[in-house]
């Protein structure tokens, strides 16, 4: 990986003496680069459904002007494309709101088990349509962490929804909340689907990274879900731990550190 420096020289007192100063610009360059890539990717992702909308509008105004059957079919596709844009914008807004809050520590008290139960209740109809059954195992005592309820709901929603969508073939998803010896709280989402090959795992939380773009599109993905998860967890000083075995399924775990009692 290359490094970038700004080098300045200043003459000292005209005696042939110079001061050289260096400023490390590597990090700033990297951030710039990421921002540019992000804008390019986001624009590209928006342009695809938009191009398709324009295409269908032109077709309806032109060649399909008198073909009601075709029009009806095209309108269905147009609605899908518009919904896709709308999901993309929602996710982009979530990310930018999270970035604005990145340096503010969350402060509420949240029961992770209750959050999982809430999310599973909301996702059960969707899981049912996919033929997936979701189980939940929680400890007897509430598993309390310091956090933002809505954000943690979003985390579990993204993980459980992914497990149902991508692990559909496994027919079941197991969600469990556990308290570790030292006081850490861990929530895991296990699916029995195709799993994820090792080389993809470290990149899953990158914006717009998808193992298989077509399958993600077909499953109404935006490629931003796990990027949002990572942002939220960083703010909570929690970690995402992914283990996956191709052919056996994946486990996405969220680990909240033990409260610092010092
Ligand atoms: P998307 O909106 O495409 O679902 P995510 O950021 O949520 O985006 O996930 C990124 C990619 O990680 C997905 O496109 C998919 O390829 C892969 N992925 C996520 N969860 C799973 C899972 N449980 N099993 C297999 N692949 C997964």
Automatic annotation (TrEMBL):
Residues 41-260 form the Histidine kinase domain. The keyword Amino-acid biosynthesis does not apply. Transmembrane segments: none annotated. It catalyses: ATP + protein L-histidine = ADP + protein N-phospho-L-histidine. Its EC number is 2.7.13.3. One of its GO terms (cellular component) is plasma membrane. It is found in: Cell membrane. One of its GO terms (molecular function) is ATP binding. This is histidine kinase. It comes from Pseudohoeflea suaedae. The lineage of its organism: Bacteria, Pseudomonadati, Pseudomonadota, Alphaproteobacteria, Hyphomicrobiales. The chain holds residues 88 to 349 of 349 of the full protein.
């Amino acid at each position: 990986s290359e490094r970038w420096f700004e080098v300045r020289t200043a003459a000292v007192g005209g005696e042939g003496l110079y001061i050289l100063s260096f400023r490390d610009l590597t990090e700033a360059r990297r951030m710039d680069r990421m921002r540019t890539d992000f804008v390019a990717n986001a624009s590209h992702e928006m342009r695809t459904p938009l191009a398709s909308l324009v295409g269908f509008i032109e077709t309806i105004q032109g060649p399909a002007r008198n073909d009601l059957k075709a029009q009806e079919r095209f309108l269905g596709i147009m609605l899908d494309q518009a919904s896709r844009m709308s999901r993309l914008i929602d996710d982009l807004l979530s990310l930018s709101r999270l970035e604005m809050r990145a340096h503010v520590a969350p402060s509420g008290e949240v029961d992770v088990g209750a959050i999982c139960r809430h999310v599973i209740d909301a996702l059960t109809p969707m899981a049912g349509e996919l033929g997936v059954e979701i189980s939940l195992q929680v400890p007897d005592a509430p598993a309390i962490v310091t956090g933002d309820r809505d954000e943690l709901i979003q985390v579990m929603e993204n993980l459980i929804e992914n497990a149902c969508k991508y692990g559909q073939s496994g027919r079941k998803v197991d969600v469990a909340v556990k308290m570790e010896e030292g006081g850490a709280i861990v929530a895991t989402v296990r699916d029995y689907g195709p799993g994820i090959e090792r080389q993809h795992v470290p990149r899953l939380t990158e914006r717009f990274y998808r193992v298989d773009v077509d399958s993600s599109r077909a499953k109404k993905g935006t490629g931003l879900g796990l990027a949002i998860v990572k942002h939220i967890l960083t703010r909570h000083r929690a970690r995402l731990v992914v283990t996956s075995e191709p052919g056996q399924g994946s486990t996405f775990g969220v680990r909240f550190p033990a409260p610092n009692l010092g």
